């Protein structure tokens, strides 16, 4: 039995015409609900505002055995590149048929990638052109406490949860984050999470060149 989690952004619905293949047990989870270790694949459907994107990246960075298939309402090669670099095995529109869904599931569960050609081209281009990773020098500028805050943010923690984990106030966490954003090229929690994983989004890569 294969256990698959399904997370839907607020404005998304799973098409009634799409049926999971035999041998699959589907678990419908809230976007911020943690993943059970037995989940073999997590499917996340993003709405046009991509409100669940940050949570998806946090899931990618904290899960060890689970594969991820992110279904977008509109394909964006840059978003797809970020998600694949963060660990996603699949990035696509919502499948139009159950057969297409099954082919994607079979591919991802076999350890392969299910992504559009435009994302593959972007990834190949970066493999050829991208300079050596700059994450280490960037993160060396952070103090040990700032690194601890950044690590928690990369794990998807809210400011309140970070404060509890570190035994400090939320005001202190916000002050650390303000300093972190001044010392790094990250402009939000998503980009900070990617930096801590060792990936540079396209905007940051271009700005550093």
Would you kindly provide a written description of the structure presented here, covering whatever features stand out?
- Mean pLDDT is 82; it is low at 130-136 and 204-209.
- With 209 residues, this protein is an alpha/beta fold.
- Strands 2-1-3-4-5 form a five-stranded parallel sheet, sandwiched between helices.
- It folds into two domains: 2-128, Response regulator (Rossmann fold, 3-Layer(aba) Sandwich), CATH 3.40.50; 135-208, Orthogonal Bundle (Arc Repressor Mutant, subunit A).
- Helix 2 (77-86) links the parallel strand 4 and strand 5 (90-93).
- It contains ten helices and five strands.
Envelope shape: globular
Query: Can you tell me the CATH class of the largest domain?
Result: Alpha Beta
Query: Mean pLDDT across all residues, rounded?
Result: 82
- What is the CATH topology of the largest domain? Rossmann fold
Helices and strands in order, then pairings?
Elements (H helix, E strand, L loop, with lengths): L1 E7 L15 E6 L11 E5 L7 H10 L4 E6 L4 H10 L3 E4 L4 H12 L7 H13 L5 H6 L3 H11 L4 H8 L3 H14 L5 H9 L4 H7 L1
Parallel strand pairs: 1-2, 1-3, 3-4, 4-5
